[in-house]
């Protein structure tokens, strides 16, 4: 009965009452699990399921088996998802429940156990043998998370991974190579390096360009002389790669943990073959990477484009973020910046012809004052429907982004496909930071 009262207190509008109930339920431990699981499965719930799931995760081991049952058996997707979240983030001083779950017959449970051990990092070392066996799991999702968990063990897992690479079992060898790449690519055996180089050469012969999802900055230079581009940007140690691998490296570095990677975040760039006479460079040259505040970054971008355009006749910089509306472009010719535009940032130069027919980011169309009258701002569907109707009735232009400007001024990587004509080879090259600090570890798709 007391548990039921505490559950009701969790739904209270009084934050002090909520907090007291949470603390009491966590102190109760195993005794509180049945009531919390019942509330998690209740439809509709009285308490936000994320709150219930977080409390079960804090209680830890006593909630482990009940949560696995909910995750694998409950009919409501949101309930299963919350149970999965709670299993992944349990506060366990003793990791035995995760270790035992690695052999569970349901692959979803094995996956959550691997995720939990990955979060534990080096604390999971006593269970390394079981994790290594999971590298050969028949389920692809389990294998992927087992690789991540083994990678999180760090350098202490390297000897065992090298033994798997050398002597098997064969079903684990590819996953072991992936884990080694995530821990320290330098430890990969020369034989494996040679095999990867051969694979890259073979795939590059028949590879078709694919659309890229831009997130970060890239340069476009009107030249097919890749060596000149590398020299102008102080890039070295160029290694041939597939387009897919180069794209994966760019995406990986853009989303790596800045706190742990430091200068390795901008240690390499992806340089494409010539695309309709333009060479594209994805990543941050050192001059931009070391400009940390917005003002100095925009100045560095303009200076870089001006310098490169004096060498190649023109130089364009573009940038987009996959998580918000940030976008930027800088267009320079013969040593002079013609246009610089950054959403919510600096701008210089007159409107460029490539921007004609578009709204600029942040620019509002001229609409009647009552254009959105009667539309609930909290209803995104209704809001989008009204916006689409207004755009059609008032011929409102689309808002442009860097890819739109790139399409009009050089080459748009988001539209790459079998129709895209490329000549030459793709390479990954090191920046000055790459030469000094090495590159970010991680396996990349070939």
UniProtKB/TrEMBL annotation:
Superkingdom in the source lineage: Bacteria
Pfam families registered for this protein in UniProt: HEAT_2
The name under which this protein is listed is HEAT repeat domain-containing protein
């Amino acid at each position: 009965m007391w548990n039921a009262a505490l559950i009701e207190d969790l739904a209270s509008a009084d934050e002090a009452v909520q907090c007291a109930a949470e603390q009491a339920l966590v102190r109760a431990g195993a005794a509180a699990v049945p009531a919390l699981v019942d509330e998690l499965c209740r439809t509709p719930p009285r308490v936000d399921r994320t709150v219930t799931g977080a409390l079960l995760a804090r209680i830890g081991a006593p909630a482990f088996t009940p949560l696995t049952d909910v995750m694998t058996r409950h009919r409501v997707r949101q309930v299963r998802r919350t149970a999965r979240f709670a299993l992944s983030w349990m506060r366990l001083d003793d990791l035995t429940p995760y270790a035992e779950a690695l052999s569970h017959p349901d692959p979803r449970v094995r996956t959550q156990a691997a995720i939990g051990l990955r979060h534990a990092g080096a604390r999971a070392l006593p269970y390394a043998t079981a994790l290594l066996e999971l590298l050969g799991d028949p389920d692809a999702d389990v294998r992927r998370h087992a690789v991540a968990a083994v990678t999180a063990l760090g350098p202490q897992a390297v000897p065992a991974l090298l033994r798997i690479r050398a002597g098997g079992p064969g079903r684990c060898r590819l996953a072991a190579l992936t884990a080694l790449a995530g821990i320290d690519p330098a430890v990969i055996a020369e034989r494996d390096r040679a095999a990867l180089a051969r694979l890259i050469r073979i795939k590059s012969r028949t590879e078709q360009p694919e659309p890229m999802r831009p997130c970060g900055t890239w340069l476009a230079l009107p030249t097919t002389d890749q060596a000149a581009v590398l020299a102008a940007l102080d890039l070295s140690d160029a290694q041939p790669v597939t387009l897919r691998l180069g794209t994966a490296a760019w995406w990986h570095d853009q989303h790596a943990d800045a706190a742990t990677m430091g200068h390795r975040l901008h240690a390499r760039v992806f340089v494409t073959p010539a695309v309709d006479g333009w060479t594209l460079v994805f990543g941050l040259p050192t001059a931009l990477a070391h400009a940390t505040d917005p003002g100095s970054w925009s100045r560095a971008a303009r200076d870089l484009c001006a310098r490169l355009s004096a060498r190649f006749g023109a130089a364009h910089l573009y940038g987009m973020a996959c998580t918000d509306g940030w976008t930027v472009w800088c267009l320079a010719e013969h040593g002079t910046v013609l246009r610089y535009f950054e959403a919510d940032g600096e701008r210089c130069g007159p409107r460029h012809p490539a921007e004609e027919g578009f709204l600029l980011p942040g620019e509002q169309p001229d609409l009647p004052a009552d254009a959105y009258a009667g539309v609930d701002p909290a209803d995104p569907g209704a809001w989008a429907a009204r916006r689409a109707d207004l755009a059609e009735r008032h011929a409102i232009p689309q808002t442009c982004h860097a890819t739109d400007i790139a399409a009009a001024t050089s080459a748009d990587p988001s539209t790459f496909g079998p129709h895209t004509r490329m000549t030459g080879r793709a390479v990954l090259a090191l920046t000055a930071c790459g030469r000094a600090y090495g590159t970010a570890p991680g396996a990349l798709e070939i």
